[in-house]
UniProtKB/TrEMBL annotation:
Domain Phage tail collar, chain residue ranges per copy: 6-62
SUPFAM superfamilies: Receptor-binding domain of short tail fibre protein gp12
Name assigned to this protein: Phage tail collar domain-containing protein
Gene3D superfamilies xrefs: Phage tail collar domain
InterPro entries for the chain: Phage_tail_collar_dom, Phage_tail_collar_dom_sf
Length: 231
C-alpha cells in the first residue's frame, strides 16, 4: 500500500489491504513495527518498551484535536457515550399534579364509661299541725305549722295532711354517668397517589440514547508505507 505510514483510511469493505490493519485497538510489537511506533508511540496504549496499541475506532466517531467550550479534545483521548441516564439535575424546575385515592374501612372505637357524680336536693314535706318542741329529735323531727305563743316548729313524723313548702328549690349538681359503648368510625386505612402526567412512578430510570445517525464503515491504518517527513 503506497501511503504515508500511520495514515488512517475509511473503506467500505470488510478486509484491510496489504500493509494496513483495522483500527481496533490491537497490540503490536515495537520490534516488528519500529517505524510506526516512532510516530504514534503509546498515545493509544501499550507498555512503551515492548508493545504499543493502534487507535481503537470501534463504534467511535473521530473528532478534531483542540479545546472547545466545555471540552478539551487531546490526541488519543475518548469522550462521550452512546447512552445517558437523566437525573433531576438535567430537568428544569417543574411540578406535577397529584391525586390521592383513599381506602377507607370501619374501625371500632370504644368510649369508656363515665361515673355518675350527681348530687340531688329533694323537696321537704311539712305537716300543717302545730309543733310542740323547738328542738328536733328522732321522734319529733318534721317541720310543722306554727302555733300561738312561743313558736314551736317541730312535730312527730306524719304520713297524711302533708303540704309542700313553697319556694323551695331543688338543685342537681355534678355530671351524669354513662356506660361504655363501642361505635364504628370510618377511617382512612391506605390509598394510592397518582402523579401525572408522564411520570414513571416507582420504575427504574431508562438510559436515553444520544447516538447520532451513523453508518458503520471500516477504519484502517497504514502500518507500512512512506515515512512522513516532519516540517
Amino acid at each position: 500500500m503506497d501511503a504515508y505510514l500511520g495514515t488512517i483510511y475509511i473503506i467500505p469493505y470488510n478486509f484491510a489491504m496489504y500493509g494496513s490493519q483495522f483500527c481496533l485497538g490491537q497490540t503490536l510489537q515495537v520490534s516488528q513495527f519500529t517505524a510506526l511506533y516512532s510516530l504514534i508511540g503509546t498515545i493509544y496504549g501499550g507498555s512503551g518498551n515492548q508493545n504499543f496499541q493502534l487507535p481503537d475506532l470501534k463504534g467511535q466517531v473521530p473528532v478534531g484535536v483542540g479545546a472547545t467550550p466545555g471540552v478539551n479534545f487531546q490526541l488519543g483521548t475518548k469522550h462521550g457515550a452512546n447512552f445517558q441516564t437523566l437525573s433531576v439535575l438535567n430537568l428544569p424546575d417543574h411540578t406535577h399534579p397529584a391525586q390521592f385515592a383513599p381506602t377507607t374501612a370501619n374501625q371500632p372505637v370504644t368510649i369508656p364509661a363515665v361515673q355518675n357524680t350527681l348530687d340531688v336536693k329533694v323537696d321537704v314535706d311539712v305537716y300543717g299541725g302545730g309543733g310542740d318542741t323547738t328542738i328536733p329529735t328522732a321522734a319529733k323531727n318534721m317541720l310543722s305549722g306554727g302555733s300561738t305563743g312561743t313558736t314551736k316548729i317541730y312535730n312527730s313524723p306524719q304520713t297524711s295532711n302533708l303540704v309542700k313548702l313553697s319556694n323551695v328549690n331543688t338543685t342537681v349538681t355534678g355530671s351524669a354517668g354513662s356506660p361504655a359503648t363501642t361505635v364504628n368510625v370510618s377511617t382512612v386505612t391506605g390509598g394510592t397517589v397518582a402523579v401525572g402526567p408522564g411520570v414513571r412512578y416507582g420504575n427504574p430510570q431508562a438510559p436515553v440514547s444520544v447516538l447520532q445517525p451513523s453508518l458503520a464503515l471500516n477504519f484502517i491504518i497504514a502500518v507500512e508505507g512512506i515515512y512522513p517527513q516532519r516540517p
